[in-house]
Each structure stands twice: as structure tokens, then as C-alpha cells.
Amino acid sequence: MVRKSKNDTEYKKILSDYSPLLYKGEREIPGLQILKFFCAIFVILIHTPSYGKELVMPLTRIAVPIFFMITGYFVLEPSGEIPTPRLRKTLFKTVRLFLIAVAVYIVYYMLISLRNPEIFQRTIQTFLSFKSWCNLFIFGSYPAGHLWYLVALIQAVLVIMLICRMKLAKWLWIFIPLGFAVNLLYGKYNFLINSHLVPNNLLFARNSITTALPCIVLGMLLRRYEHLLPSTRTVIFTTILCLILLYTENIILYLFLPKYHAGDIVLLTIPCAVGIFILFLRFSSVHPAAEKIGKLGKHCSLDIYVWHMLIFSVASVCLAKLNIHGLDFIIVVILSVCLAVFLYRSNLKRFYS
After folding, report:
1. CA–CA separation, 351 and 334 (whole Å)
2. Exposure of 153 by Cβ count < 10 A (0-12 exposed, 13-18 middle, 19+ buried)?
3. What are phi and psi for residue 282, nearest 5 degrees?
4. Quick check: 46 and 269 in contact, CB under 8 A?
5. What would the DSSP string read from start to end of 228-283?
6. Are 40 and 297 in contact (CB under 8 A)?
7. Among the four 68, 137, 220, 306, which has the fewest Cβ within 10 Å?
8. pTM for the complete prediction?
9. Pair 203, 138: CB distance under 8 Å
């Protein structure tokens, strides 16, 4: 992506001094694996009811951008090259998981609709409609809305592969300002360009161009220039400041537009995500709990993300029948983690990994 230093020996020495992980090309970074697990939990919190949820909602929105950033970080070589085999492996793995997830969710929704003939008929009509299949392969909003992440990842990887094939990889950074600008202007800040607000217009926020590509490229740049990043103390101070400003921004938007809920990110979401990403990138601990959480993040975070809505659908019905309220989030977290661990230990993941 970026031209190497003329003095190759000096270049390698700089990388080795500042980041042994970068220079040696090791793929194990415990801090990022731990961060993946916490991001998966954040996604569950976004989708399930919980006490005090609104207090942490601005912070939870960093989860999906960080997932994409981690993908970009590990795709790039320390030299700045984007290896096509690694992109191809990511693509095939994601496509297999997406197809399996789509099949499972479609079958599940058809089965639960059998209890009511009218609902079952509408489910079949939805399944057979052209619009549903467009939503499936273009936006990823069918049959389960959260699967947009996999579709966006697939599309983003295809775009990166195409750009690399055209020898234009050095221009990938353009997607960062353009993608985030479109995301904000057609999301939370749509009122700046449109007097007629369109609430929940999420197609501009949840796609490959305005979220996946910018965040993946951002992760690549963080890996490429990791040796130039500021000190940990500076990052901590900046991240705390960004978090304060993030909550201030959300409060101001809520006060002026209390009924407007479009978009996922605000101006300070990505700076906060970058700061937290860097802090976990540098995090190291020999504590057994950190090691276990890291393993969960490495092997189970994607399965937690993909299957938590299935678990939530089943758990919410059971909890309602038992007249239990307020435990949805905790129950879904526990069951999602258990399912992900089971899939990993039973080796069922071999079908899509």
C-alpha cells in the first residue's frame, strides 16, 4: 500500500524496535482477541433489552467498526503489501458462513411460522419475492438484519481485491473520508442536507462502502504505521477525551432531535474506536482470565455475533412465558457463548472456517 523505505535495514530495525509483533509477522495479538470478545458482547447489548442500556449505547456503536478494523489489521503485511491469498481465504470463509447462516435463519423462521397459516403464507411469499433476495445479497437485511455485517465484509473484500488487481491499492485510503462522510450525512447528520428527515434509514450506514471498507482500510493503516503511533499515555488521554465528547455529542443530538434515530455512528464514534483499538493492541496480560477471554474472542466472537439473534428469538419467547423480565441480555450472552464454544469444541466450525 505504501512505498518502503530506501534503507531496508533501517526500516526493519524501526519496526523491530517499536513492534516485535509487526516485524516478526506473528498473528497472535491477545489484546485484539480480547477486544473481539467484548465487541461481540456489545452487539448483543445493542439487540437485546437491558436495564441502563441507553447509558452505554454510544459506546456499543464502536463494536462493528472495530470488527472491520481488526480484519484490516490482520489482512495487511508489515511491509504494506496486501496478500491476495489472505484476502481470498477471508472471502471464502465469510461466504461459507453467510450461506450457512442464511439457510439456518430461513428454516427457523419458516418453522416458527407454521403455528399460524397466515404468517406462514406471508413468510413463504417473502422468501419467494425478488425484493427479499435483493436484500439478501445486496444489503444483507434478509432473513436477519444483523447479517449485513457478513455481506458488507464480502463486498469490501471483493472491492479490495479488484483495486489491488488494478494496481491502485495506494488509493484505498480515499474510502475513509468518503465512506464516513456519506455515513454521517445520510445517518445521524442527515438534517444538514435534508429538511425531511428519514428515520432509521440504515442502508446508508450498514453497507460495504460507508462502513466496512473505511474501517478495514483504517485497520490496514494502523498496522502499516503502528511504529508511528503516539505513546500509550497520549492514547489513553485522547481516548478519554473522545469518549467524553462522544457522550456530549449524543446528548446534544438527542436534545435537538429526540425522535430521530437514523444511522449508527456519530462524529466521535470512529475516533473512540481507534483509540480503544490501539489500547487493546498494546494490552498484554498473563492473567488466566485474560487468556481465556482472548481464546473466546479468537475462536468464538464471530459465532456469537452470527447466532445471538437466533438465541434471542427463542429465549425471549421462553422468558415471556415464564414472566421473567430484564434478563434477556444476560441470558442471551450466556447461551450465545455456550453455543459458540460448543461449535468450536465439537469441530462443527470446520464447515465454514
Report:
1. 24
2. buried
3. -95, 0
4. no
5. GSPPHHHHHHHHHHHHHHHHHHHHHHHHH-TT----S--TTHHHHHHHHHHHHHT-
6. yes
7. 137
8. 0.90
9. no
Task: Yes or no: say if 294 and 30 are a contact pair by the CB < 8 Å rule.
Answer: yes
Q: For residue 252, give the amino acid letter.
A: I
Q: C-alpha distances in angstroms, 69 versus 151, 155, 226?
A: 16, 15, 13
Please, which residues have CB within 8 angstroms of residue 151's CB and are 6 or more apart in sequence? 98, 136, 137, 138, 139, 140, 208
The vertex-141 CA angle with 137 and 146, nearest 5°, equals 115
Instruction: Give residue 263's Cα distance to chain centre.
Output: 15
> Could you give the maximum distance between any two Cα atoms of the chain, in Å?
72
Q: How many CB atoms lie within 10 A of CB 321?
A: 8
What is the rounded CA–CA span in Å between residue 98 and residue 248? 37
pLDDT tens digits for 280-319?
999 987 788 999 999 999 999 999 999 999 999 999 999 9
Contact 310, 108 (CB under 8 A): yes
Alpha-carbon span 82 to 84, nearest angstrom: 6
Q: Cis (ω within 30 of 0) for the bond into 20?
A: no
